[in-house]
Amino acid sequence: MGGQTFLLNKYFNIGWLTRRYYDGKLYHQPFSAEDRLLAGERLYADFLVWNRHFGALRCVDLQKPRVDGGGGRGFVPLSAEAERFRRALRLISKPSMPVVYKIVLEECEIRPPASMSARERLYFNDEIKGLLCRGLDQLCRFYG
Q1: 31-49 pLDDT tens trace
Q2: For the chain, which has fewer Cβ within 10 Å, the N-terminal or C-terminal residue?
Q3: Residues near 6 by Cβ (< 8 Å), separated by ≥ 6?
Q4: Is the pTM of this model over 0.90?
Q5: What are the pLDDT digits (tens) for 7-32?
Q6: C-alpha dihedral, 136 to 91 to 21 to 25, nearest 10°
Q7: Average pLDDT, integer, range 119-133
Q8: Cβ within 8 Å of residue 74, ≥6 positions away
Q9: Coil, strand or helix: which one is 129?
Q10: Which residues, including other chains, have CB under 8 Å from residue 12's CB and lie 6 or more apart?
Q11: How many CB atoms lie within 10 A of CB 47?
Q12: Phi, psi angles (nearest 5°) of residue 132
């Protein structure tokens, strides 16, 4: 990740990815912290490919007259990685999506508001850890 530490790696190193949670039946950790880190890294790698693909895509201006340029590219299918990224996003639950997106793809920390008490900050961070780990577990199932 270009000389800087991947944010998810930082969270792995401080123990955030070992979080257990209640899934409605059990209080458990279905995947290891290493599995969660790997799933996040795979999502990020697939995102980079997807982003390159769509960053290079040009829209056709239907207002301009069409000139025969000979052998245009036409429909370009997505690469396997870009398609895998699209499928992976669909598997992340709505509550976990903003947290996974912010931390894994944008690599931005989610900080509690300054107005929170120390106890509220602890609860806030615990909630973020839980949502992150749930989302990563959904990706672990996908990436295998």
Answers
A1: 999 999 999 999 999 999 8
A2: C
A3: 41, 44, 107
A4: no
A5: 999 999 999 999 999 888 999 999 99
A6: -150
A7: 96
A8: none
A9: helix
A10: 33, 34, 36, 37
A11: 18
A12: -65, -50
